[in-house]
Amino acid sequence: MQGNRLVIQQLNKNLGVLLVTINQYFLHARILKNWGLTELGEHFYKSSIVEMKQADAIIERVLLLEGLPNLQELGKLLIGESAEEIIKCDLTKEQEKHAILLDAIKICENEQDYISRDLLEKQKDINEERIDWLETQLEQIASMGLPNYLQLGAQED
Prior knowledge:
Blueprint: H1 5-34, H2 38-64, H3 83-110, H4 114-144, H5 146-152
Helix pairs in contact: 1-2, 1-3, 3-4, 4-5
């Protein structure tokens, strides 16, 4: 099935930021684990797996549209040097991904590729939940202080 060139471009743009996010979350998970922040590290590890599954779905969609998934144009990883900085870096990357998703969803809608749009909409929902979680973590750090936050570990909800 020959896909729309603009849609494939947007899917690949989204794929690129997903691949960066996978690596960023994975490295942050390992850094946190190394620091003894196991629960927080586990949260970021699970996030990297979710991102990987989303990237896999995008790759499959691009291939179905007879496009070539672009795994070569990767952006910059944002690596934190403290737990708070890690959360801020990941929030920045998620916000970047959100803007790319919104653009891609619009283009899919305009090009009447509703299946790709639905795939991206599901990803956007997960992205919004993750942004909310990261913002909540930063609010908790601000209200209780970093040492107390770190003693509590990652709070899932």
